[in-house]
Amino acid sequence: MPLLDALATRLHDHAIEDALAEHLEAHRDVVAVMGGHSMQRTDPAYRTVAELGRSMARTGWHVATGGGPGAMEAANLGAWLAPHADTALDESIELLAAAVDFRDADRYLCAGLSVLHAFPDGAASLAVPTWFYGHEPTNQFATHVAKYFANSICEDGLLALASAIVRVESGEHGCPF
Question: Which pTM does this prediction carry?
Answer without folding.
Answer: 0.90
